[in-house]
Amino acid sequence: MKLSEELAWRGFNNQTTLTDLAQLDKDKWIFYHGYDASVDSLTVGNLAAVMLDKLFLRHGSKAILLAGGATSLIGDPGGKDSERVLQDEQTISRNVRKVKQQIESLVASEVHMVNNLDWFKSMDVLEFLRDVGKHFSMTPLVQRDYIANRMGEKGSGISYTEFSYTLLQGYDFLHLYQKYGVELQLAGSDQWGNAISGIELVRRVEGKEVHALTMPLIINKSTGKKFGKSEEGAIWLDADKTSPYRFYQFWLNIGDEGVEDYLKIYTELDKKQIDKIMEEFKEDPSKRYAQRRLAQEVTHLVHGAERLERVEKITEAIFQQSNLDVLSHHEIEDMKKELPFLEVHSGADIVTEIVSLGLASSKTEARNFVQQGGISINGIKLPPTTQELLETDFVHHIGDQSAPHFALVKRGKNKIGLLIKK
Length: 422
What we know:
Tyrosyl-Transfer RNA Synthetase, alpha/beta, about 45% helix, about 15% strand, Rossmann fold, 13 strands, five-stranded mixed β-sheet, Structural Genomics Hypothetical 15.5 Kd Protein In mrcA-pckA Intergenic Region, Chain A
């Protein structure tokens, strides 16, 4: 499959200045793609952009990936109803380092990373106004949607700082064209206006035609909202912000409507592989085979094979409550981060522990759950007359002496707690 064909099949093409996508197949392009550094981690929304970069790299293009150390100090006004809170240079610098590490880990091939603070920090205001500002007309700038909306009757207004953002990003394209021969910018759909600024600046200064291609905003087809959020908020690639377990669960719980699209966007599986996955999925959607493959592929990409194996073991333990004796010390530590847990002695009062784990609101309610057969330990329903935890209620990894003895207490389908034996 040619690059242009794969772009269309995976759904990556939104807007482009190219008259025909087939132009991408004729040459090996040097492209650039910019990443915001206003936060210290990418999200799954950013991950889609990285997958677009990886697609171009697989087809032989060269990448200049830009961390916005300078532009993040200003803040992109696109998509914002009000002025961003400005961050200090030290914070942005730390964010750049972390985002750079994530991108390099994800791309896993030879790319050149740059930081636009490196060329803006030595540029004075007169130089910027004379060499950059003079090439931009105010008329088309104020007509851009995100600026017009802010300046309109019901808008919150826009400062000159944010208004100038598009000039800074436009200069990025010019600088990268002059230094590296970049002729194509990849971006999200919200960056189309900024990409046009760069194209115009290169044309005016160098008399050269360069291009842009944007990818569409990824929408959660189940909710109609921007993809990449859960009830707890954004899904981050940083394991300290979104644990690998929760990351895996996010993909596992994707709705049926969008799973094929997400397999195309977020994995490097080819058409034959994805078609085969979807065939098996459609035979019995309740088994969620496509979601499981999606979760495996993306978690492996972001967190690696070892963490994937751990989260799959934890998922099986929590929801199927089987193979519990293969959980290592590390996997139990991971479970403690995801489930309410208590340290208890054998012989402890079961009703008290059910309440303490948050599986019941009172001892009376907990006692009723036990008597009605609504409580299980390690997948086995408790007899109605159960009063104490027994030594045999706890399991442990036979081959890992550091692994604690533990028990999974479950009420219904999703209320689960962890007991660790003292």
